[in-house]
Amino acid sequence: METRSNKSYGVAVSLSAVFGVLGIQHFYLERWLEALIDFSLAVGTVVLLLMGHPLWALLVAAIDAIHTFIVTIMLLTGSFRDGHGRLVCYPGQKLNEEIE
């Protein structure tokens, strides 16, 4: 049985679109491990740039950006779950048990 998240769809999508590479949407959705990994990738990118390793920084930034893009698409399509396993539903989204 699927349940809806009590987190706001609009807030989650907005955070992902604007601050996604920092992992802010994961903090909001209480996905703590994913949030820390995303934030670490962003910090790692800056550290690598400051240390004079632009190619490694580009690689880390690309990984973070691709992950953010995938999460944003999953949020937009209503297929992403919060930290408690509940779906972050878009307005009007029907869950499986509601369809039957």
Can you walk me through this structure?
The chain contains 5 helices and no strands. It is an all-alpha fold and 100 residues long. It has one domain. The longest helix is centred in the middle third of the chain and has 23 residues. The two termini are 12 Å apart.
- Would you identify the regions where 5 or more consecutive residues have pLDDT less than 50? none
Distance between the termini: 12 Å
**CA gyration radius, whole angstroms:** 15 Å
- Supply the number of structural domains: 1
How would you briefly describe this protein structure?
By secondary structure, the protein is mostly helical. The chain is built from 5 helices and no strands. The protein is elongated.
Name its key features.
mainly alpha, 100 residues, single chain
Write the layout of secondary structure elements.
Blueprint: H1 9-19, H2 24-28, H3 32-50, H4 54-76, H5 96-99
Helix pairs in contact: 1-4, 3-4
